[in-house]
């Protein structure tokens, strides 16, 4: 008698490329997305879209590029903040989380400011940085993951474990308590798998756009 085994396959969101540069709001003040197009004419169009949406601050997580000069030269309402790192899958340093969350805390004291957090595709670094910001604002570590993924189905948030570890230690939790929180984050990823390779492949096919 044969027994069939059910294998949970990672979620493949429909048309990830359509979400690449879509503004995905996680809260009234915080959005996540992809970067500006390399084509400067299209980049200017996208910048105007950000302005129309009320974005006042852009937090850029790309180690490979920095659009600050372009933004400041072409917008009088948006300030760019650069916290570039490589998307190499390795551990994120505490100093990275300290820097970006410290700046976010300063910016978000003004309720009229709206922050866009992004990397290149808005899959790994940007969503993970936004996750750290949410933690620093007092969000529960699992609620923050759910809200990001609900708002942006292509968000891998692969550095969330590093962020959870960083915030736990900043909160004074001991090693065992920190490990429990990180394990809960990893378990969430296990229950909510995303086919990140598929997402990146689909977005990569649109580089010329």
Task: Summarize the structure in words.
The structure is a single chain. This protein has a 5-stranded mixed beta sheet with strand order 1-2-5-3-4, sandwiched between helices. It has 9 helices and 5 strands. The chain has one domain: Protein-Tyrosine Phosphatase, Chain A. The chain is globular and about 50 Å long. Helices cover 47% and strands 12% of the residues. It has 209 residues and is α/β, with parallel strands linked by helices. Helix 4 packs across helix 5, helix 5 crosses helix 6 (141-151) and helix 5 (125-136) packs parallel to helix 7 (160-170).
| Average of pLDDT | 95
Q: Superfamily at the CATH H level?
A: Protein tyrosine phosphatase superfamily
Largest β-sheet summary: 5 strands, mixed
Count of alpha and pi helical runs: 9
Overall number of structural domains? 1
How many E-type strands?
Answer: 5
Portion of residues in helices? 40-55%
Gyration radius, rounded: 17 Å
Task: Identify the overall geometry.
Answer: globular
Percent range for β-strand residues? 5-15%
Provide the CATH architecture.
Answer: Alpha-Beta Complex
Fill in the keyword field for this structure.
9 helices; alpha/beta; 209 residues; five-stranded mixed beta sheet
Question: Could you write a compact summary of the structure shown?
Answer:
The chain is an alpha/beta fold. The chain is 47% helix and 12% strand. It has one domain (16-204): Protein-Tyrosine Phosphatase, Chain A (Alpha-Beta Complex).
